[in-house]
């Protein structure tokens, strides 16, 4: 991938995730981005013109094949050494976050303590998020100042997530010895 193509890809990730207003929309979009990135890597590694590889691998990667689902695909990539342990674990946690947010529904907020606790368990996010972000105990201030501070914290969380996801997806798009 050329430098320009990588930059455009990064911009596409940021735009896609920035448009998501709710955690539900955000984590659904991030799951889709991970699926796309993993699919591109798997296609680069396994979908070659070689008839034998194509004949053996195509059925495994099809919609109803054993490698059709993201959790199985990332395990394969991790097992082949194409994905670091940290990124593998982070993607697994993002998958869990998507499931958590879906179970909570549209009512969950980015500032939810339950969500922030789960975010701090993700290595790529925890190293970016400022400490004590979940502490929304604000001194007595005007309503507008409190709202501004809450919005700032919401944006910090969302921006940290976007940066973390972009870094993980960049790892998935690096050149590998198998591609």
TrEMBL record:
- One Pfam family of this chain: MtlR
User: InterPro entries, alphabetically?
Assistant: MtlR-like, MtlR-like_sf
| GO terms under biological process | negative regulation of DNA-templated transcription
**Transmembrane region(s):** none
Q: Which domain of life is it from?
A: Bacteria
- Any signal peptide, and if so, which residues? none
What is this protein called in UniProt?
Mannitol repressor, MtlR
């Amino acid at each position: 991938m050329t430098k320009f193509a990588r930059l455009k890809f990064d911009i596409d990730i940021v735009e896609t995730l920035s448009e998501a207003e709710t955690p539900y929309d955000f984590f659904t979009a991030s799951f889709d981005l991970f699926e796309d990135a993993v699919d591109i890597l798997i296609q680069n590694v396994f979908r070659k013109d070689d008839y034998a590889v194509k004949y053996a691998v195509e059925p495994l990667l099809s919609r109803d094949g054993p490698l059709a689902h993201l959790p199985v695909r990332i395990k394969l990539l991790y097992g082949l050494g194409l994905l670091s342990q940290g990124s593998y674990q982070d993607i697994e946690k993002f998958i869990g976050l998507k499931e958590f947010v879906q179970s909570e529904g549209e009512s969950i907020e980015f500032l939810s303590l339950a969500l922030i606790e789960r975010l701090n368990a993700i290595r790529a996010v925890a190293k970016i998020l400022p400490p004590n972000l979940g502490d929304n105990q604000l001194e007595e201030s005007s309503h507008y100042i409190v709202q501004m501070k809450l919005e700032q914290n919401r944006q910090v969380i969302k921006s940290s997530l976007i940066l973390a996801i972009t870094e993980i997806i960049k790892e998935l798009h690096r050149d590998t010895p198998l591609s």
